[in-house]
Amino acid sequence: MPTALKCGWIRAMADAGVASIEVGSFVPATIVPQMADTAEVVADAVTIAGLRVVALVPNLRGAQAAHAAGAHAVTIPISASNSHSLANTRKSTADQIAEVGRISAWVGAQARPMQVEAGVSTAFGCSMEGVVPIERVVWTAAGLVAAGADTIALCDTVGYAHPALIRATIRAVREAVGGRLRTLHLHDTLGMGIANALAGLEEGIRAFDGALAGLGGCPFAPGASGNVTTEDLVFMLESMGFSTGIDLEKLLATRALLAAGLPDERLRGQLALAGIPRTFHRAA
Amino acid sequence: MPTALKCGWIRAMADAGVASIEVGSFVPATIVPQMADTAEVVADAVTIAGLRVVALVPNLRGAQAAHAAGAHAVTIPISASNSHSLANTRKSTADQIAEVGRISAWVGAQARPMQVEAGVSTAFGCSMEGVVPIERVVWTAAGLVAAGADTIALCDTVGYAHPALIRATIRAVREAVGGRLRTLHLHDTLGMGIANALAGLEEGIRAFDGALAGLGGCPFAPGASGNVTTEDLVFMLESMGFSTGIDLEKLLATRALLAAGLPDERLRGQLALAGIPRTFHRAA
After folding, report:
1. How confident is the prediction for chain A on average, in pLDDT?
2. Does A188 touch chain B (CB under 8 A)?
3. What share of chain A is helix, strand, coil (3-state, %, to 5)?
């Protein structure tokens, strides 16, 4: 997607009321060429009033680039599955936790603050190792907090989570790290993304990663489909009486910008197909 | 779908462990020609050992035809929304409840028993009336039980339900009719079908209508997409530790029979796309 279209799309999402957007990744352009313009995109996004601009970074070098570009927060994926960690980063989970320690220390020494979020990848299962024990997820999250992460996200990288596992994992991780547990990052690979979000919501989670039109997947997680569809998730939350601050009509309209920038991608989402129902405003 | 293919598909679903199947509708062939062979399909399905054969019927005449064909149960849709009821049946909700009374009385007088399930349509919203008050749903369900219905299904005919409404409605209806409330019938129109099933499950519901590959919609509910996808729902339930008695590999294999019979229909479902994950058997 051309840089100008990315920036316009982000602006439209922010205008619809999305308060925090992960706008890109500081990863080598040789590996993920689509993200080569992330510094430019961050620099533009931080001029949008009220928007929290987040960038994904794999390591200290990425975090330094994100800070230089002006990002308000970085998110660092650390795989609870050691095999997944080694395959994707050539580093073990423990080595990645140590890298988060270096990032946190470096960020802490800068004049301008930047939030450090650590995302526990494969927190609900791994395409390589299969089941990831909850104890391993707790160990990873606790290690990340000890290393200085401000907040923890639990990430269903390959979409294997189910509602009972979501509940059990959140309870165990919260017991270890308390309010540092902030975010659920869900994929809809097996059709349970929205149900998993509901389980997380009922466990007290109030921050969810989503993707407009369910865009995405993961270059390093074979079989993973897109993130949970933002507009469908917002619709559920608003229907249930939660206030997201997001204008659904405006949010749905931003799909056209996404389609213009990525004309070959399949746009997902049931709300866009069915339209906002007659019951909506009264129910909310 | 040719009758022979319908019968083969039903047999394969039963062989996969599906214990109860709604195999057709006794509605005028002039209105729904796809269902003209329902008597034949029921007569074949009742020869399958262990299968509970259900037919949808709109009135006493349909119930008599279902009984003659050998059905074990009938399900009768009664719209809680009076406008929806009048538009689809030219009868009010109250008149439809009276028809259930006639059906129950007639069935009670027969030598061979047949279960009478009443499905409260538009129980979570109506494309014509918008919000359907919970009190109206309770009134309808209570009237149906008083009229002799053995069990009640709550049906999200147009897919407007959300998890908080599911919970509130189940609690209110159960207070009125107790254990007669048996089934949730959900559509995935707005992407919340599985999340709504989860909410129902957590409220104690143990019977769910689904459709293989999310097939369906409703000829009388504009905008409604298919029922919740059976295989995705079964996968969630089994993942959470519930025993459905269904063999998922066999169930997924029956999609080929559906595709052969209805080659132009879009087959939905994330499990079929993603495959059964490595974590599955251990998690269950």
Report:
1. 94
2. yes
3. 45, 15, 35
Q: What is the pLDDT of residue B33?
A: 93
Q: Please indicate if any CB of chain A lies within 8 Å of the CB of B178.
A: no
Domains (ranges, CATH) in chain A?
A: 3-273 (3.20.20.70)
Burial B50-69 (b: 16+ CB within 10 A, else e): ebbbbbbbbbbebbbbbbeb
CB neighbour burial string for A219-241, b if at least 16 within 10 angstroms, e if fewer = ebbebbbbbbbbbbbbbbbbbbe
| A38-75 pLDDT, tens digit each | 999 999 999 999 999 999 999 999 999 999 999 999 99
Q: What pLDDT shows up at residue A225?
A: 75
Which of B278, B280, B281, B282 to substitute to test the interface with A, most A CBs within 10 Å?
A: B278
Q: Taking 60 as the threshold, does the pLDDT of residue A97 lie above it?
A: yes
Q: Is A47 helix (H, G, I), strand (E, B) or coil?
A: coil
Contacts of residue A162 in chain B, CB cutoff 8 Å? 236, 239-240, 283
In chain A, which residue's Cα lies nearest the Cα of B283?
A: A131
By CB atoms closer than 10 A (0-12, 13-18, 19+), residue B125 is buried
Residues lower than pLDDT 50 in chain B = 282-284
- Is beta strand A52-56 parallel, antiparallel or unpaired with respect to A20-25? parallel
Tokens of A284: 């909310």
Select from A123, A208, A207, A127 the least CA-distant residue to A166: A123
Q: CB contact, 8 Å: B270 with chain A?
A: yes
B276 DSSP 8-state letter: -
Total-model pTM: 0.94
What is the least distance, in Å, from the CA of A33 to any CA of chain B?
26
Measure the CA–CA gap between B252 and B247, rounded to whole angstroms. Answer: 9
- Phi and psi at A17, nearest 5°, equal 110, 5
User: Which residue in A160, A275, A278 is closest to B279 by CB distance?
Assistant: A160
CB contact under 8 A, B127 and A164: no
Q: How confident is the model at residue A277 (pLDDT cuts 50, 70, 90)?
A: confident
Token pair listed for A84: 């997944």
**pLDDT tens for each residue of A100-124:** 999 999 999 999 999 999 999 999 9
Q: Are A26 and A56 in contact (CB under 8 A)?
A: yes
| Residues of chain B found within 8 Å of residue A273, distances taken between Cβ atoms | 225
Residue A284 has pLDDT above 60, yes or no: no
Q: Is the pLDDT of residue A167 over 90?
A: yes
Inter-residue contact B191 to B226 (CB < 8 Å): no
Report, in angstroms and rounded to the nearest whole number, the Rg of chain A calculated over CA atoms.
Answer: 18
User: Does A156 reach chain B within 8 Å, measured CB to CB?
Assistant: no
